[in-house]
Amino acid sequence: MLKNRKWQSLATTALLLTLAACNAEQWGDNKHLQPLSSKIKSEIKDIGSTKNAPLYIRIFKKEAVLEAWKQKKDGTYALLKTYPICAYSGEVGPKKKEGDRQAPEGFYAITPGQMNPNSSYYLSFNLGYPNKFDRSYGRTGKHLMVHGSCSSRGCYAMEDEPIAEIYALGREAFEGGQRSFKVHAFPFRMTPENMAKHRKSEHFPFWVNLKNGYDHFQVTKKPPNVEVCNRTYVFNPQGGGSFNAQGPCPDYTIEPSLMAALQSKRSAEEIQFQKAIRALEEKAAEKQADDLETIADAQRDILTRRKRISEGKNPDGFIAGLIQGNPTTPGSTAPTVASQAPVSGQAVPASAQTPAQPGGVSGFFESISSGISNPFKKTPPAPVATPAAEAVTLPATPKPKS
């Protein structure tokens, strides 16, 4: 076994040196051969790993982060470092076709041949999109990368310093004998709360499938073995026949203790999922009530202003008074309050007691405003009952055929 790994290491080194010789002028400073810093080596040691140990990468699009994990002596993986993603294309959701400027989501594997030291974007590695799953849906696209230079057209872009370190981690893992390192790209951290937040998305069924793979790693701390059948990702299958991405799934099993752990996790998360949905619906109901109250306040304000204008009062200042009030003809003087006051002992005519308004406008607005107290009065939102036919649940971990 050691002899075989040593041979693989020598073969990988020879391949890198050969490529370096062919592209020496283009690579210039040999940035693809930058050694790991003493700091990152110390961090690798602190998590109980080594620089040549296998690498695993997780990407979370919404949070714009890339996680690098390294294998420990017991076979499990520990988080080494989280890197910021400088830019990615599109929004949450899978890439479907060439030119849609979406960054991929799914399960990919990186071989030495996908590492690009001569990238136009400093350094890069190709995700391998479309994979078997993507092709089963007829999805198209090429040259989807994780790269430097902080510029994205369907890729995940990093600053140059982080991509140099990630590239070096991959190179050292290949040097240690790892044939490919896995990159699992998710739309967001797949917590019950985030799943509830995105439950109405057209991509929700796809994300549920991704979450199954996410949960396998959360439980085992080992990247799951990924297969595709019936146009669905399958994780850690045991037994069964060959897997055809578009054909029916063969009979397979999942290790019993792993299945039990997954089912226990999903049962607990279903409670959190439903609780999160209720909280989101209550928040939405409160916002709707606030919006309606704001509209009602605006309508009452308009009615009040119109009423004041119809009474000859001026709520908006001199200009509004000229436009909406009682304009006078040039050379004439508008009657003042004092000039309209009755002389002591003189009877006040009925017509003078209530100023006449054209078309009875005052009475019209008075009748409307008196009839509107607050039709949108804010009340505590009642719990929203989701019809049974439309109830959303976090699907249970799929049971393999036995």
Helix content: 25-40%
SSE order, as H and E? HHHEEEEEEEHEEHEHHEEHHHHH
What is the CATH superfamily of the largest domain? Answer: L,D-transpeptidase catalytic domain-like
Q: End-to-end distance, in Å?
A: 34 Å
Can you walk through the features of this model?
- This protein folds into two domains: 222 residues, L,D-transpeptidase catalytic domain-like (Beta Barrel); 71 residues, no CATH class.
- It is built from twelve helices and twelve strands.
- The strands form three sheets. The chain has a five-stranded mixed beta sheet with strand order 3-2-1-10-5, with helices on both faces.
- Strand 6 and strand 7 form a beta hairpin.
- It starts with a helix and ends in a 31-residue tail after the last helix.
- About 19% of the residues have low confidence.
Task: State the main characteristics.
five-stranded mixed sheet, 12 strands, 40% helix, 13% strand, signal, peptidoglycan synthesis, transferase, LD_TPept_cat_dom
